[in-house]
């Protein structure tokens, strides 16, 4: 993870299903670098993303990212934003 103009810029590897969550104060940016990602949205809609595709979940929208096989993502969000939408349940970050 690095910081750029008040934002955290992260390249992450994901596999499996993350929990349902939302971000009250910010949109959630996903860019798939390698592999495939599905993002389930409230209301039953699912976004299917492959390498080179991006999607922005609007603030306040419940969503659940998931990857059947390992996927590499670029994530950008305001510095300090908890990835789970809740500081108590957020995964730790490693600044490089």
Describe the 3D structure.
- The structure is a single chain.
- The chain has 96 residues and is mainly beta.
- The chain has one domain: Jelly Rolls (Sandwich).
- Helices cover 0% and strands 54% of the residues.
- The protein has no helices and 7 strands.
- Strands 1, 2, 3, 4, 5, 6 and 7 form a 7-stranded antiparallel β-sheet that branches.
- Strand 1 and strand 2 form a beta hairpin.
- The mean pLDDT is 89.
Shape: globular
Helix fraction by DSSP (H/I, runs of at least 4): under 10%
Overall pLDDT confidence: 89
Structural class: mainly beta
- CATH fold title: Jelly Rolls
Descriptive terms for the model:
96 residues; mainly beta; Jelly Rolls; seven-stranded antiparallel sheet; 7 strands
Outline:
The protein has 96 residues and is mainly β. Helices cover 0% and strands 54% of the residues.
């Amino acid at each position: 993870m690095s910081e750029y103009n008040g934002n955290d810029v992260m390249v992450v590897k994901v596999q499996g299903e993350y929990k349902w969550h939302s971000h009250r104060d910010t949109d959630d940016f996903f860019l798939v670098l390698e592999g495939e990602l599905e993002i389930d949205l409230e209301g039953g809609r699912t976004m299917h993303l492959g390498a080179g595709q991006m999607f922005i979940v609007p603030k306040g929208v419940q969503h659940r990212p998931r990857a059947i096989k390992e996927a590499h993502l670029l994530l950008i969000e305001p510095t300090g934003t908890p990835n789970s939408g809740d500081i108590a349940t957020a995964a730790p970050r490693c600044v490089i």
